[in-house]
Design goal:
Chain lengths: ~160, ~750
């Protein structure tokens, strides 16, 4: 069956009941969406489907034909990070980083719908995503910064090193 | 090294072996360095009188075990410590680049790998900067001086006229020799010296400056960063079918139907160890579920009643250790006596990413990619479990989700190793399921503390008695029986006998000795050997509970003495660095001018020096309690921290903030639940943790600058003080003291009594 991920159509051989998460990670070799619980409880696997934040661990691919799926890989690359990625780098908003891609995708869905969103709304939306390292303060700062960056094209960025 | 460890490691392995072959076993030792200056560290004498090498250089005294410079001038640092999300890679690169005088981005770091790096034990106890940072800093300084010495020889100039910068040695006349020109295979194969010519902190360009973490760009762009992200050629996916409870015995299993499921390659059974291997990941999950249904276990109720946990633990046999005793110096009449008992439940590490490992057996040698905290001890356990020589097992650390201590990482590595030993050739990837991580990780032990003190007529503490009851806080590998796979396989290695961790760092008694000045005091560690629930190291070990207890008790005493909590602490605190963090946090918070507590609003304070020998941390916070529900909302937090010489200021802030938020979660919400047979918390609905709606509005972290002082680990400094500050602020807000963790909304509501 065919899946459209980050603007490209892929044909995948996985069984139709396979949750999207496993197809992204195994068939498409995309690393960003993470397995955290497989139960729809933690948000580590969050991606966007037609602009909405979706838990990819509980959505079988059979429901996703013809939909636009977007993962962190679709936001930019290490050499050319997009605004959300730049914001997380600039705020140094990660410890282990395992929860971060899910946070970024939920925040992306929120900001695409409402770039002027309030702090309270950011917290409310991120409520479903868990971080065990206690990076919350930085994640909130990063999402606020992303909201600004998304409205100011081409803000300079220090991407740090990538050895 | 944000790339998956495998490629880099293989390449390094080859080149390093080539170097070592080139030098054979030749050991060149010479003394190069002049006399010590005030900036030097590590000149301490061992008890035998021989000078001790700084940090982990004692474990691996050759400089080229730590620093390599290749013929092309590229520099590589090696550490036995692992990146756990604490930012250690960046800090170690900073330390090395600073002293070696190479640009930060010209330096590569290789982390924990049994084929490449020194044995630095576990990455734990906030030791990494102290041990490995100190080793690398000294090794880099000594390497830099050797390179300068070599340049001096070639230029025929005195070494003290030369300086190093940017990977080059420069003479006063402008003549230069790059490190690439100077280096030869044996140049750095020399024994480290006890003293190094360390740079003056005033000349730092890289240390004590916030450097962006090297691992973050890869983590936010979908790079292959975690062991979970590795995809090796021919890799198969395995899932373990764990017993439903501790000690359950596999009675029958009907594998027939599962063997015929799509993609299933093999079912592995060894005693009570049961696993399925499949071609694709979701096939393995479906097969695991079917196999679980086709399996019968014999279980027995062997766990304590959760409701009676404290009483049960107190009734178990103990080994008592008096870890501190100060006889009365002057007899003062005690005016008021105060006593209190505090309890903590079992706490889960509860990593967001369940444990994962990959193992491959090829030509009798096993390679294991693991997010263990200790590649060498893990190798020892796996080798013993499989009856292999340790040299036949190669453990490579690859990052996982944050672990916060001994979680399922080593067990997953053991699972992968056992399965790989029965399916040779293929890399076997084992991913634990969420419910397996919760049910089988070793928890942070439940603890009970009892404090008794009396105040003299002037309101100062006259005497102090404190006892802590706890299991061990480490059941980590080495022995094969420390791995679940080792315990469950037919050969059934017994779990190693539990041992208390010795002072001065301690385990259950970590931070049980107050830093306060007390005229008479006795502190006893009541060590409970028997472990009804599987336990091991959770970030900060006993310090969380002991600091929670001592600092809650200090507030109870301050109340009895009609004294301000901060003033009361300062009256009993002589250590100037301790006083500095307490006053810094109090000033920054505006403690003196704070609103009086009550009506559901309160402020609290907490302080400790982690292990009484690492970082100092004081925390002040303000919160609101919703009186109708008991719900706590933390408004603002100020922390002041002294970590000695700072390496990466933002890295420290990140660790302290993280520690505080994790401690809020432990302290307010968390408790492992179980019935008499099974662990009952198996997902995020049965083990709730902090969510965004309860995150404080503001957290500020002040660093007290201590240039030139030894590094003090900070990763576990804030958990204890944060928990006590919370409890004290709740008491301030509602006028009632809660002593039983977690301080849940239900307990607070009950205490408020409306
Ligand atoms: S992995 Fe999907 S919500 Fe946890
Ligand atoms: S950064 Fe580790 S779980 Fe969020």
């Amino acid at each position: 069956m065919e899946l459209k991920v980050n603007g490209r159509i892929h044909s995948v051989a996985a069984a139709p009941d396979t949750p999207l998460l496993y197809v992204l990670r195994e068939d498409l070799q995309l690393n960003a969406a993470k397995y955290g619980c497989g139960l729809g409880q933690c948000g580590a696997c969050t991606v966007m489907v037609d602009g909405e934040a979706v838990l990819s661990c509980v959505v079988p691919i059979l429901l996703l034909q013809g939909k636009e799926i977007m993962t962190v890989e679709g936001l930019g690359s290490i050499d050319k990070p997009g605004p959300m990625q730049r914001a997380f780098i600039e705020e140094q908003a990660a410890q282990c980083g395992y929860c971060i891609p899910g946070m970024m995708m939920r925040a992306q869905a929120l900001l695409q719908k409402n770039p002027q969103t309030s702090d309270a709304e950011i917290r409310r939306q991120l409520e479903q995503n868990l971080c065990r390292c206690g990076t919350h303060m930085r994640i909130l700062r990063a999402v606020r910064r992303a909201a600004q960056l998304m409205q100011t094209p081409e803000t300079a960025v220090d991407t740090g090193r990538s050895t | 090294m944000t790339a998956v460890g495998a490629d880099t490691s293989v390449r390094r392995s080859v080149s390093r072996r080539a170097v070592l072959q080139g030098t054979g076993a030749l050991i060149v030792t010479f003394t190069i360095f002049p006399v010590a200056s005030s900036q030097e560290t590590g000149g301490a004498k061992t008890s035998a009188g021989a000078p001790k090498l700084p940090g982990s250089l004692t474990n691996a005294p050759f400089l080229d075990a730590w620093i390599r410079i290749d013929a092309d001038g590229s520099a590589t640092a090696f550490t036995g410590k692992a990146e756990l999300g604490q930012g250690i890679k960046t800090a170690l690169l900073q330390v090395t680049a600073e002293e070696l005088e190479v640009p930060l981005n010209h330096l590569t770091l290789i982390t924990a790998d049994t084929a490449l790096t020194a044995d630095e034990g576990y990455t734990a106890g906030s030791h990494s900067t102290q041990d490995s940072g100190t080793a690398l800093r000294n090794a880099a300084a000594q390497a830099r001086e050797i390179l300068i010495g070599e340049a001096a020889r070639r230029m025929n100039l005195p070494a003290d006229q030369l300086k190093a910068a940017n990977g080059t040695v420069i003479a006063p006349n402008g003549a230069r020799l790059s490190y690439a020109d100077l280096v030869s295979p044996t140049l750095l194969h020399v024994q480290a010296q006890p003293n190094s010519k360390l740079k003056d902190p005033d000349s730092f360009r890289i240390m004590n400056r916030s450097q962006p973490r090297v691992d973050i760009p890869g983590k936010v762009t979908g790079g292959s960063v975690y062991v979970q992200d590795m995809r090796l050629p021919g890799m198969l996916h395995a899932r373990v079918v764990r017993p439903p409870s501790y000690g359950a015995q596999l009675a029958t299993v009907d594998t027939g139907a599962v063997e015929r499921m799509p993609g299933v390659v093999r079912i592995v059974r060894d005693g009570n160890f049961l696993a399925v291997v499949a071609e694709r990941e979701y096939q393995a999950i479906k097969a695991m579920r079917s196999l679980a249904v086709a399996t019968q276990w014999r279980e027995r109720p062997a766990l304590p009643k959760q409701a009676d946990l404290a009483a049960t633990l107190l009734s178990l046999p103990v080994e008592d250790f008096t870890i501190f005793e100060k006889p009365v110096s002057t007899s003062t009449a005690a005016a008021t006596a105060v006593e209190a008992t505090y309890t903590r439940p079992y706490l889960a590490h509860a990593s967001v990413g369940p444990s994962c490992a990959i193992a491959q057996l090829q030509d009798g040698s096993l390679t294991v990619w693991t997010h263990t905290q200790g590649v060498y001890p893990d190798r020892q356990a796996i080798a013993a479990m499989l009856g292999l020589a340790p040299e036949k097992v190669h453990c490579i650390h690859v990052e996982g989700s944050g672990c916060y201590g001994h979680n399922g990482a080593d067990d997953a590595a053991g699972d992968a190793a056992l399965i790989a030993s029965q399916v040779p050739g293929h890399p076997i990837r084992v991913q634990w399921m969420r419910e397996q991580e919760f049910a089988w990780e070793p928890f942070g032990p439940a603890m009970i503390t009892k404090a008794h003190a009396s105040l003299d007529s002037s309101g100062r503490i006259a005497d102090w008695d404190y006892g802590v009851w706890s299991n061990t806080h480490s059941t980590r590998p080495g022995p094969a029986g420390s791995l679940l796979a080792g315990q469950h396989m037919a050969r059934a290695f017994p779990p190693p006998p539990p041992k208390p961790l010795p002072q001065p760092e301690g385990g259950g008694d970590r931070n049980a000795i107050p830093l306060y000045e007390l005229p008479r005091a006795k502190v006893v560690h009541h060590f409970i050997p028997s472990m009804p629930i599987r336990v091991s190291a959770l970030r900060s070990l006993g310090a969380h509970m002991n600091v929670f207890s001592i600092e809650s008790f200090m507030d109870e005493l301050a109340l009895a003495a009609h004294s301000d909590p901060v003033a009361f602490r300062l009256e009993h605190l002589n250590d100037p660095r301790a006083r500095a963090v307490v006053t810094t946090a109090a000033d920054r918070f505006g403690w003196a001018a704070r609103q009086k507590g009550g009506n559901g609003r309160g402020c609290g304070f907490g302080f400790a020096r982690y292990k009484n020998l690492a970082a100092y941390c004081a925390i002040a916070l303000e919160l609101e309690v919703e009186r109708e529900t008991g719900r706590v909302r933390v408004q603002r937090i100020v922390a002041a921290v002294d970590t000695g010489q700072v390496v990466n200021p933002d890295g420290i802030r990140n660790q302290i903030e993280g520690g505080i938020l994790q401690s809020i979660s432990w302290t307010l919400y968390e408790s492992v639940s179980f019935d008499e047979t099974r662990i009952l918390c198996v997902d995020w609905s049965t083990y709730p943790i902090l969510r965004f709606d309860s995150v404080p509005n503001r957290v500020d972290v002040d660093l007290v600058d201590r240039p030139g002082q030894p590094f003090l680990g900070c990763g576990e400094a804030s958990q204890g003080p944060a928990s006590a500050a919370l409890a004290n602020a709740i008491a301030d807000a509602i006028g009632k003291r809660l002593r039983e963790l977690p301080l849940t909304a239900a307990r607070i509501k009950a205490a408020v009594g409306i």
